[in-house]
Amino acid sequence: AALYELEKEPAYWDAQARATLDAALKLHPRNHRAKNIILFLGDGMGVSTVSAARILRGQMEGASGEETVLAMDTFPYLALSKTYSVDKQVADSASTATAYHCGVKANAKTVGLSANAVAYECNTTFGNEVYSVLRRAKAQGKSVGIVTTTRVQHASPAAAYAHSVSRSWYSDADIPFSARKQGCIDIATQMVTNVDIDVILGGGRMYMTPKGTPDPEYPTSNSRKGDRKDMRNLIDVWLKNKKSHYVWHRKEFDEINAKTTDRLMGGYADMLAHNQVTQMNELIHLLCGVIVRGRIDHGHHDGIAKLALTEAVMFDRAIERAAQLTKESDTLTVVTADHSHVFTFGGNTPRGNPIFGLAPKKADDKMPFTSILYANGPGYVHINGTRGNITMVDYYDEEYMQQAAVPLDAETHGGEDVAIYAKGPMAHLFHGVKEQNYVAHVMAFAACLE
């Protein structure tokens, strides 16, 4: 209420803009080499998602929300990224990952391969490999790492180390016999053999262990048992190197001594618990690395905005923590998304309206509607030819699906540009409207990589 009174006065806006202008005038490009690079990848984090997450974060902190400044909002340099792939107007997470990791646009479903590769055709793999910034950083003696809330073999991190005509060939059990015969290797195996990655934290443990291996965290679960037909334990393969640790729960993670640990692998059966990415940032001092927040995407695909936006807020907190642990003078930090979603919020809502709340007026069908809506997805529920009446529904529920215009099992990606936020050495090279594959080239240039 006090802020609202202030905002009525022109002097408030003039002073705020003046301070912003002064800061802009003092901003100077950092024209030297970056010692560290951190790429924060919000899977599916389009601009509408960032705006809604900003309001949510502010409201979680007791404010109206719109005036809140996210950690990523403070980054001085901004560009737009065109996310289409070689074969798709609206792209998937695999082809886009190849673009921002390897600097080359690609075909849907493929990772770490140029567009000469054809999805699911094993023999088009060989000779079409493209190499990531992470791999090139490792080749020049940097420590490299991947931290993700998804399985570590998911497309978004996989393009950093693997070359596969199918993003879904997680373990050898997922590869058709003919492709195995032609020499195609699963993503989990490539993770421990292609690049010597110093820190790997994420889910997907079952793809690393022999078929039937009980999960350490859920020993009675059948669905989480090991999956590998070749009966290799890839965790053991990775551990053979120097001073390595494998952890699978929070207590072990907390007890790690960064001074004596050169390499760390953390495997979680589930995608990571909410607060773990923040903890993982403690390991940032090791890194030239990639941090992926994958459940923004999962929440949107399920049509559950609360899940997606809560994840986006957690992602922003991880960015904030990283800022405390790094120096802007030697670390290039890049925050971006692989693609957007058909998620929107609107409806003439008043200032401070709960982000998951209703628009103030009823629709033409005399029924209320939430500010947040999806263009398509599982939230399409029509009864007798008319949309559901949400008057008696708890639209603040954790799993509430906002209404959608078109019925689909899973909501789809969006095709519009996403933002790239950057700070640190060479961050000023992110400006204007750019092709998504440009991201990898700036990172490589900033770190003076091949």
Automatic annotation (TrEMBL):
Enzyme Commission (EC) number: 3.1.3.1
Names of the cofactor(s): Mg(2+); Zn(2+)
Binding positions (Zn(2+)): D43, D297, H301, D338, H339, H413
Keyword Zinc: yes
Annotated compartments: Cell membrane
Single Gene Ontology MF annotation: alkaline phosphatase activity
A Pfam short name: Alk_phosphatase
Keyword Lipoprotein attributed: yes
Catalysed transformations (reactions): a phosphate monoester + H2O = an alcohol + phosphate
InterPro entries: Alkaline_phosphatase, Alkaline_phosphatase_AS, Alkaline_phosphatase_core_sf
One GO term describing the cellular component: plasma membrane
Residues annotated for Mg(2+) binding in this entry: D43, H154, S156
Enzyme class of the recorded protein, top EC level: hydrolase
Family: Belongs to the alkaline phosphatase family.
Protein name: Alkaline phosphatase
Record organism: Seriola dumerili
